[in-house]
Write a structure and sequence with these properties.
Shape: elongated
Number of domains: 1
CATH class: Mainly Beta
Strand content: 35-45%
Largest sheet: 6 strands, antiparallel, barrel
CATH topology: Pnp Oxidase, Chain A
Radius of gyration: 17 Å
Strand order of the largest sheet: 3-4-5-8-7-6
CATH superfamily: Electron Transport, Fmn-binding Protein, Chain A
CATH architecture: Roll
Distance between the termini: 29 Å
Length: 166
């Protein structure tokens, strides 16, 4: 991963490293969509009143508008998102971040079969509906930010209130 991060840097004439110029918002959206299409795993952070905050990696499938994840019904992440109906999702690494705030809905087995189970299984290599105790969750983005370096922080928002800004 360090080598990839170094690929994002250019050298000054004196040999010190400098960040690439900031990407335009349209390019950041394209890059974020690319990650949503090709990455297999994400980090999901959740919390609930009186509960423990959690941060766990989960496999996911993106249908072009929403993410779908599966996890054990009784674990803290499932309990947190059931209570709060929200979570924060992160794709990428610290030098190429896509940060997504999502609204979360637990799907019934019938809804999961209809909306996402086959595509999730194809992308992720397993079908959680074949394992007892798992549930699918639909994650609908409401806010997305994307940045690589400090020079992209000022214009990092690419979605607000569920609408793309570019």
């Amino acid at each position: 991963m360090l080598l990839f991060a170094l690929d994002l840097l250019d050298e000054h004439k004196d040999g010190t490293l400098m960040a690439e110029p900031p990407r335009p918002l349209k390019q950041r959206k394209t890059d974020a969509l690319g990650r949503l299409e090709t990455d297999k795993d994400l980090w999901i952070a959740s919390g609930a009143a009186g509960g423990m905050a959690t941060l766990v990696p989960l496999s996911f499938w993106w249908d072009g508008n929403r993410l779908f994840v599966a996890t054990v019904r009784s674990n803290p992440t499932a309990r947190n998102v059931d209570e709060s109906a929200t979570a924060r999702v992160v794709l990428g690494h610290t030098r190429d971040v896509v940060l997504i705030d999502v609204d979360v809905v637990r799907l019934s087995s019938a809804e999961a079969t209809e909306r996402c189970a086959a595509q999730y299984a194809k992308k992720c290599g397993w079908d959680p509906l074949e394992s007892s105790g798992y549930a699918f969750f639909q994650l609908t983005p409401s806010w997305i930010e994307s940045w690589r370096e400090l020079n992209e922080h000022a214009d990092r928002k690419i979605m607000a209130d569920g609408k793309w800004l570019v």
